[in-house]
Amino acid sequence: MENVIEAINLTKYYNELLAVDHINFEVKKGDVFGFLGPNGAGKTTTIRMLTSLTKPSEGTAKIFGHDIQNETLVAKRYMGIVPEISNIYDDLSAWDNLMFTGELYQVSKAEREKKARELLELFGLYDRRNSKAKGFSKGMKRRLTLSMGLINTPQLLFLDEPTSGLDVQSALIIKDVVRELNQKGVTIFLTTHNIEEANVTCDRVAIIHKGKIAAIDTPEKLKKTIQSVQSVEVAFDKTTPKTLKELEKIPYVNEVRKEGDKFRLYTHDPASVLSNLWEYSKTNNLKPISLNTLGPSLEDVFVRLTELDVKTERRNFHE
Fold it and tell me: Distance between CA atoms of 319 and 314, rounded to whole angstroms?
């Protein structure tokens, strides 16, 4: 299968700061590729290098086989870019923003007018096409930004945190459109710190941490790399402030987290924990109203790969 993106030893320094550290990966044609990491991990810097907005300090990147630095114009014809920070001109109408972007991509007048109408209707903005963007909500602006990224009918779409901070309706619209685009053959490069979004959307995921690729694979294969991290999830008919501490004392339980009205007990031996949990319930006159055994999640993978740093940062924060 054809490689749409090839990152080869891609590196970026900002003075003495190493923001992206000699990373290598490929994205296949037709994939939704997730670039997952916390804020400051190097996601946006990577996307800026892949789209020629930032020059790499070392290494190179290819888009459909074209070097992004030496063949920039050819490479950029394949791509649409939806940055995390809005690139909308607030004093222009939604329609004029699309016309201007279409001109930048050298889309013919007839084609960009046709495409603009389709996109504004798709994103529920056609009735506001003549309104200045300054009056739009954050969700509307995000939908307009995505429309601008699609005006040239790209084969590769870069999405930088596309649903971050959005209302539910706007986030759902964007997710649906991304899914439809991918079904039509558009390759998607998605940066996100939303682990669940990556889990349900992406064919493959790269986890970047402090500028380095910590892991890269399908979500399910990543989960299998820490298969030992299993858990039992339980909700009781009643709880007390002491419940969490008491559950931590159950044999074979490594850690307990309270998640809403449920408790999640991490263990290497779910069968023994289930048996001991039943005894605990009887002894304390508790009735389990839900009980599930769970395999590792993509969040567990992420936490495991960044565990030491997370604990260190939490400790430093409280000092």
Answer: 9
Res. 309: pLDDT tops 80:
no
The answer to whether the CB of 227 falls within 8 A of the CB of 295 is yes
The domains found in the chain, sorted by start residue, are 3-223 (3.40.50.300), 225-318 (3.30.70.980)
1 pLDDT more than 90: no
pLDDT score at 285: 92
Instruction: Work out the number of other CB atoms within 10 angstroms of the CB of residue 108.
Output: 11
Question: Over 90: is that where the pLDDT of 67 sits?
Answer: yes
- 198, 161 contact by CB (below 8 A): no
The amino acid occupying position 240 is T
**Nearest one of 104, 108, 118 to 147, comparing CA atoms:** 118
